[in-house]
Amino acid sequence: MSVQRVMGTETEYAVSLKAAGGHYNPVQLSFDVVNGAADQHSKSIRWDYRQEDPVNDARGTRLERAAACPDMLTDSPQLNITNVITPNGGRVYVDHAHPEYSAPETTDPFEAVRYDHAGDLIMQAAAERASKATGTPIALHRNNVDGKGSSWGTHENYMMLRSVPFSRVARLMTLHFVTRQIYAGSGRVGIDEHSEMAGFQLSQRADYIHSKVGLQTTFERPIINTRDESHSTDEFRRLHVIVGDANRMQVPQVLKLGTTSMLLWLLEHVEEADFDIDAFLDELELADPVEAMHTVSHDLTLAAPLELEHGGETNAWLIQLKLRQAVYQVAALIDGTDTTGEPAWPDKSTTSIMAMWGQALADVAAIRHAENDDARLALSNEASRVEWLFKWQLLEKMRRKIAAGVSDGAAAASSGWNHPKLKVIDLAWAALDPTTSVFAKLESRTERVIRAQEIAQAAAEPPEHTRAWLRGKLVSKFGSEVAAVSWSKLTARDPQTVSADDSAEFYGNASHAAASSANLFSLDISNPLRFTKQDCQTKLDAAEHAIDLLKALAITTEG
């Protein structure tokens, strides 16, 4: 009944030159940023791709490698590029011409957002170092689109029980992902992939979703991604979510992670509660989820009807209301309620998420009931929690100001949502550099649930309650002795026997054998909830070398 589970995020950043108009190679800039994130020791550590299996499908099939699009084969040797393991146990690397930060494993949505936003600090610092080293001023933006047809990802990952039929996961998550935009969208200027139509919409990512279910992530993007790489033990699967926006505000991102986790908890406990989940899903099944995804994003009134598969219609707000009610119903059936009728939530994080979900639906109701744009502009409290609304208010005020200064008809026609100034502000909202970021200047007007000092600490220290603690500390203390790292394995060199002929180039490369096994030792850390600070601190303090630490932990694990 808890929101707590292993979860984490991955953020691809837009990379460009700070000076407008210059020609640049985004791939080279991305490599420069990744190199800027490295220190002397972490540069020599390889990412171990041998645990990756990008063609395994959660629907019980495997895609033949020969049939896979090349960019799906993330374990391919040619992609074994520079990776940096950050002090907090995360990963920085180049993914599809973008510098990416993969946050370390965390155990609740508040901690996940804390470590996600720590990545902004890490990446901005890396960009500044890269700019200084290369003499090329590099800018990073936390967004998902360029308005010209390209989109890049902000991904979520959730560990869940494999015993839940994936068909149920797909059906419930489709409903959730289509409709959570109403409080989790980050807002975007432009309609359709190439901004063919002027306007503003709730989500940056929605227009780039074109299928219901699939293994792919960069073409015909699906609502439900089926890549089945758990990076964990056989008991669990990893739900990999690719439809979300790159939020700057904290509340929508915490909600995005927290509500999804609670719905996964619902799926994991429906049998215990004797809750007819299939009938529930039948009642709410959308006739065309992809079209509904676009409809919801394009509808600023939040009232657009969505056609149901079995007749009738509903809307995004009602679906979210029923999803929350279902969580309440199952929680009450399993653990009962208090004197007020509230389920006995087991921890502070869960209590907070359920309250925030309720507040989000109240905020959306206020937006829905606003009579016109003037009324929506006055919703300052709601805007402090709903990012797309905050951004829309900012841009709508600017649009009106521009229109008020226009005297002739031709100029008036260009003072709508296609005005260049609005696109500039939309982009500046996403800028990481606090000296140019519109969001940084307005952040004090948003509701925050995580303190700035907590985010700064998360950039330097790994989470204490997952295996990320060992990964981060191993690299920080013994970086030069670490040969390869992955989410589920750590490999160290023996400094007494390693040969000068052993090349670090091939450590962790799926197409090459590792160096002599006499020179290496690997520790399996498949269980994300093992190898925590409590498990490892004493042995870390006592170890003289990385290999000593891994061997000591292996003995403990076997015992």
From TrEMBL:
One of its GO terms (biological process) is protein pupylation. It comes from the Bacteria. It is an enzyme of class 6 (ligase). One of its GO terms (cellular component) is proteasome complex. GO terms for molecular function: ATP binding; hydrolase activity, acting on carbon-nitrogen (but not peptide) bonds, in linear amides; ligase activity; peptidase activity. Its EC number is 6.3.2.-. The keyword Ligase applies. Pfam families: Pup_ligase. The keyword Ligase applies. Keywords: Ligase, Proteasome. The active site is at D95 (proton acceptor). InterPro entries: Pup_deamidase, Pup_ligase/deamidase. Belongs to the Pup ligase/Pup deamidase family. Pup deamidase subfamily. NCBIfam families: depupylase_Dop. This is Proteasome-associated protein. It comes from Bifidobacterium saguini DSM 23967.
